[in-house]
Amino acid sequence: MINSPIPYGRQNITQEDIDSVVDALKSDYLTQGPKINEFESKFAQYVGSKYAVAVANGTAALHLCTMALGVTEGDKVITTPITFAATANCVKYCGGDVIFSDIDPKTYLIDIPKIQQLLSKSPKGTFSGIIPVEFAGLATNLEELREIANEYNLWIIEDACHAPGGYFVDSKGNTQNCGNANFADLAIFSFHPVKHIATGEGGMITTNDKKLYNKLLELRTHGITKNPSNFINSINFASAEEGESNYPGWYMEMQILGFNYRFTDFQAALGISQLNRAEAGLIRRKQIAEKYKNAFTNKQFIINQSGVVNGHAYHLYVLEVKDRLGLYNYLKQNNIYCQIHYLPCHLMPYYRNFGWKEGDMPNAELYYKNCISIPMFPGISDDDIERVISEICKFYE
Ligand SMILES: Cc1ncc(COP(=O)(O)O)c(C=O)c1O
Fold it and tell me: Mean pLDDT across the stretch 266-270?
């Protein structure tokens, strides 16, 4: 008998999700409707931020953030090499330079002491900002990072695509949710199908800064404002009449260069429905992590693994193993489809063009040689988890 395929990640769509989308499709709105505001405010409440802006995808979210923060030609921005390319690309979209800084080999997150070393070697003002990534779902200690950012006058964009529901505990013992923007200027999420909350394509930016929030709203829709108190052209010009005291009802102005990075109402309906199950999904992800951790602890083929960590949101469960290629191919032959996260970003051919080379980020490069993300999604059955574990062990027998 051929076993059914097990992917490394998969969306979970229920009848409630389908009903919510159908309801939205039957409403008057396809693009900008009431579901978007509802999703934004429920998402903001979920992560604990003041504001949330729904956008077309996580990449658009990153781009709007670098635009809103005014990244421009020559700005140097620090990020991790172990991330999806979009994290770095948003700096390039605005003409800035990406400066990679190596990971901590235990957490796979950007190594904060290494950032400090990098900053201390250059005059203040050399760098503009930092984009930490909560890789695999593990929260960055943003309180520590904020202290450094303050010292060097840097902004922080938290790439929390992997970490809705994740958190760290600050020095006062308070839980700090990923994306609550208490320490970061802006945080971003993706709702791609393998993520915790899936809307097809989709993304969210969260912030506590009203000015940035208003800027993001404008940039999301072509740089157009409909707020009369911000209009630049005169009422006479706008109404094409003399002596009018109000702008006409149709009037709007494009004041800055923006994009169409809008989300749609039926996607928001799906997002709201998915958000209702976010906690249940998180609990299941933690259960899966515990099963894996228990199964692989003390196995001679394991170099390191994600393990069980408080506040981890487990978008991915990563093993570092001997003979990773052999394991990957063996599992594939047995219908278990793992993935590698990530090829270090500085070694993507595009970034090699800027002078990055092998040896620049030794921890990230060693990690890449051994890493494999094994199946992790709430809908995986206990039997399939057992199948993953036993096939992995069998490969090394
Ligand atoms: C860490 C990280 N940042 C950014 C993105 C980009 O998100 P999207 O695919 O929604 O554009 C992703 C998604 O794959 C991601 O994993």
Answer: 98
Phi, psi of 229 (to 5 degrees): -70, -15
Residue 326: how many CB atoms within 10 A of its CB? 12
**Does 59 contact ligand 1 (Cβ within 6 A)?**
yes
* Rounded Cα distance, 155 and 70, in Å: 11
Confidence class of residue 3 from pLDDT cuts 50, 70 and 90? Answer: confident
3-state secondary structure of 392: helix
Kindly give the distance from the C-alpha atom of residue 353 to the centroid of ligand 1, in angstroms, as a whole number: 22
Assess contact for 319 and 305: CB atoms under 8 A. Answer: yes
**What pLDDT shows up at residue 318?**
98
In 10 A of CB 179, how many CB atoms?
33
Ligand 1 lined by 83 (C-beta under 6 Å): yes
Tell me the per-residue pLDDT of 152-169, one tens digit each, with 9 for 90 and over: 999 999 999 999 999 999
Q: How far is the CA of 192 from the centre of ligand 1 (A)?
A: 7
Distance, in Å, from the CA atom of 264 to the CA atom of 35, rounded to the nearest integer, reads: 9
The pLDDT confidence band at residue 1, using thresholds 50, 70 and 90, is low
- For the record, the structure tokens of 186 come out as 């802006």
2 pLDDT above the threshold of 90:
no
Asked whether 206 and 49 are in contact (CB, 8 A), the reply is yes
Closest CA to 32 of 46, 15, 53, 51: 53
Indicate whether residue 267 lines ligand 1 (CB < 6 A). no
* Residue whose CA lies nearest to ligand 1 atom number 10: 58
CB-hemisphere CA count at 13 Å for 10? 16
Distance 299 CA to ligand 1 centre (A): 32
The mean pLDDT value for 247-273 works out to 97
CB atoms within 10 A of CB 213: 19
Residue-wise pLDDT for 77-135, tens only, equals: 999 999 999 999 999 999 999 999 999 999 999 999 999 999 999 999 999 999 999 99
CA of 162 to the centre of ligand 1 (A): 8
Q: What is the rounded distance in angstroms from the CA atom of residue 244 to the CA atom of residue 236?
A: 6
CB neighbours (10 Å) of residue 28? 7
